[in-house]
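Hi C.,

You asked whether I'd gotten around to modeling the 322-residue construct. I have! Everything is below, sequence then structure, no commentary in between.
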Amino acid sequence: MATILDAPPDDIQMNINLLNKDLDAHLPFKEIDRNLLIATWNIRAFGNYTRKWKSEEEDSPKRDMHSILCIAAIIKRFDVIAVQEVKANIRGLRDVMKLLGSHWSLILTDVTKGSSGNGERMAFIFDTRRVNLSGLACELVVPKERLKGDISKDALEEQFVRTPYAVSFKSCSQTFILVTLHIKYGKKSSERIRELKGIAQWLSDWAGDMNAYHQNLITLGDFNIDARGDLLDKTFLSEGLYVPDALQDPLITRSIFNETKYYDQIAWFNNNSNVPNLSLDFLGAGNFDFLSIALRNRNLSKRSISYMLSDHYPLWAEFRIA
């Protein structure tokens, strides 16, 4: 049986080469001691995979070794990436780490139990040549007093369905905390508003605490926000969180199925008089649209690609460090 470290068939290697050229064309390059590339990616049901170079119609799961090569090639372009929808079975994640090499590391949560949690983990994958852990790793839990609020005013009735995960990192002399989350999805916006407001309030309280571990807070992940300017977006920004204009551009799509959705976000505090603002210099941001290149030599449908790579595009932001 082939392993993920074996040389792939020629047609797959050719596709990976094209993918790498497309990444070169659309993403900033890593510059030693000069920039920091932070990303978020909801990798659909990122768990087990079929250990074949090309899965067949009857195979389950649909994700195969070609897909794993593509995922690793994309992740490699960032310094640290928050990944949502990592499942209990981490075979795919383990083999991505093998491809990335010994200078890459990860930190992740245990599985969120229950039907709403969907058996998911949160993870951070990072290049230890550029980024290292700086001491803090925690899940965000709402104080019980806040669970007793007036539900008509969008108070939380219970803890987050999938508990947000915060980890502190250091790059050169810069320290920062990344908070990743995957907000509950529901057909009605009211099912998500309370979680969005709850996380915004939590971050505002933390950023405003002068005794906090670090005050450079960046939140990123799948917020399940439908569209820019809708009620969910306004609720998420209600505590002073800021989304850069580069990530509000309608051309920066998040979903391979619906270009109008505003699901994934990267945000921080900026020009806010109530809390310390981000001290990292923001340089730019965008997405990576893998649909036109990755796996395209196989004439797969969008639906098939969504199960093999994802139904979400990676979202990234670049910062200057010194």
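If it helps when you're writing up: The chain is about 20% helix and 25% strand.

Thanks,
B.
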